[in-house]
C-alpha cells in the first residue's frame, strides 16, 4: 500500500475511533453545544470525555533550527467529563510570559483552580508557560468562567477548522514502532497511551484516564530521516527512574518532571521530553521509554 493511500485509510479509521461529538453520542446535547459556543471551538468526543481544542496558531515557535508545528506543542485545551449539570473540567492553557500575570489573576477571580504552572520544553522561543486548570460544576458555567481567562490571551477564536494538509510523515513506520495507532495531519503524528494501572482519584472522585493522566506522544517529521518529538509520560513513582534511564540511554532529553494535579491518589508524575534525531533510532528510544513506564 502506498504511503498516501495508507494515510487515507488511517485517517478514515481514526475518524471512526475519535469522532467529532454529535447528539447521538450522549443526551444533553444542547448543553455540550453551548459549551462549544462559549469557548468558540467544536467538541471532540473520545476517551470518555469532551475535549475543546484551543491551539495557539498565533505563535511561531522555534526550538533550535526547528519550527515547531502547533499540533506538536501548542495544543491548549479544555476537557469535560461527567454530566453537563455536574461536570469535571481539566485543561491546559499555553501562555506567553507576558500573558501569565493577567491570566492567573483572572482564573483566581473566576474561581478556576490552578493545579500546575510550569515549562514543558527547554530552550524554545518564545518561552512558553503551561497552566493546568481544574474545576467542578455546571459545564456551561465552567466554560463561561474559563472563557474570561482565554480572552486575555492571543488564542485565535473562533477556532477555525484546520486547513487540509497532505500527509508527509510516515505514519506506518511511526505507529508500528510505537506499537499503537494514532492521528496524523501533515508532518505530525499524535499518539496517546495510558501507562498508569488501576484507577486514580482526586477530590474523592475517580479521574477519567484520558482526561487527567494520558501520555501523549507527538512526532513531527523535519527532514528525510529526521524527526522531533515531545509530549509527556504520566507514571507512578516507581516508574520515574526507569523511564528517565530509558530516555537518557537513547539520547532523549527529559525537560521536566512534575505534577499536573493536586492531592491525587496514587501520586502521578509527568515526565516531559524532547527528542531529535534519525527516525528509526528516535522511535526506538520512545518505545523503550513507553515500555519502561508500563
Describe this structure as you would to a colleague.
The protein has 2 domains: 18-150, no CATH class; 171-293, no CATH class. With 294 residues, it is an alpha+beta fold. It is built from 9 helices and 17 strands. It has helices spanning 3-17, 29-39, 70-73, 97-109, 139-150, 171-178, 209-212, 240-249, 279-293, and strands at residues 43-46, 49-55, 61-63, 66-68, 75-83, 86-96, 113-118, 124-125, 128-137, 183-185, 188-193, 201-202, 205-206, 215-223, 226-236, 253-258, 268-277. A 6-stranded antiparallel β-sheet has the order 1-2-5-6-9-7. Strands 10-11-14-15-17-16 form a 6-stranded antiparallel β-sheet. A 3-stranded antiparallel β-sheet has the order 4-3-8. A hairpin with a 2-residue loop joins strand 14 and strand 15. The protein is globular.
Please tag this protein with its features.
single chain; 294 residues; alpha+beta; 6-stranded antiparallel sheet
Low-confidence stretches: 1-26
| Percent in helix | 25-40%
- Strand content range: 35-45%
- Count of spatially separate domains: 2
Helix count from the secondary structure assignment: 9
Strand order of the largest sheet: 1-2-5-6-9-7
Strand-pairing-aware structural class: alpha+beta
Instruction: Tell me the distance between the termini.
Output: 32 Å
Amino acid at each position: 500500500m502506498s504511503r498516501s493511500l495508507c494515510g487515507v485509510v488511517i485517517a478514515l479509521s481514526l475518524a471512526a475511533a475519535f469522532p467529532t461529538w454529535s447528539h447521538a453520542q450522549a443526551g444533553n446535547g444542547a448543553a455540550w453545544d453551548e459549551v462549544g459556543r462559549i469557548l468558540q471551538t467544536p467538541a471532540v468526543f473520545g476517551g470518555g470525555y469532551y475535549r475543546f481544542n484551543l491551539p495557539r496558531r498565533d505563535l511561531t515557535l522555534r526550538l533550535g533550527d526547528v519550527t515547531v508545528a502547533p499540533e506538536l506543542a501548542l495544543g491548549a485545551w479544555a476537557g469535560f467529563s461527567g454530566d453537563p449539570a455536574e461536570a469535571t473540567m481539566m485543561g491546559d492553557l499555553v501562555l506567553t510570559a507576558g500573558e501569565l500575570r493577567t491570566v492567573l489573576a483572572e482564573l483566581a477571580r473566576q474561581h478556576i483552580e490552578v493545579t500546575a504552572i510550569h515549562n514543558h520544553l527547554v530552550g524554545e522561543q518564545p518561552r512558553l508557560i503551561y497552566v493546568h486548570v481544574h474545576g467542578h460544576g455546571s459545564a456551561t458555567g465552567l466554560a463561561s468562567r474559563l472563557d474570561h481567562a482565554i480572552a486575555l490571551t492571543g488564542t485565535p477564536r473562533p477556532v477555525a477548522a484546520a486547513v487540509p494538509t497532505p500527509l508527509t510523515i510516515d505514519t506506518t513506520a511511526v505507529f508500528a514502532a510505537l506499537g499503537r495507532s494514532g492521528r496524523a495531519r501533515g508532518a505530525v503524528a499524535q499518539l496517546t497511551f495510558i501507562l498508569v494501572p488501576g484507577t486514580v482519584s482526586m477530590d474523592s472522585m475517580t479521574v477519567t484516564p484520558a482526561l487527567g493522566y494520558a501520555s501523549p506522544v507527538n512526532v513531527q517529521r523535519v527532514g528525510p530521516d529526521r524527526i522531533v518529538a515531545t509530549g509527556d509520560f504520566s507514571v507512578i513513582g516507581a516508574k520515574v527512574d526507569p523511564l528517565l534511564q530509558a530516555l537518557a540511554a537513547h539520547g532523549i532529553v527529559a525537560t521536566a518532571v512534575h505534577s499536573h494535579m493536586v492531592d491525587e491518589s496514587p501520586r502521578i508524575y509527568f515526565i516531559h521530553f524532547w527528542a531529535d534525531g534519525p527516525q528509526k533510532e528516535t522511535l526506538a528510544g520512545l518505545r523503550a521509554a513507553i515500555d519502561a513506564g508500563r
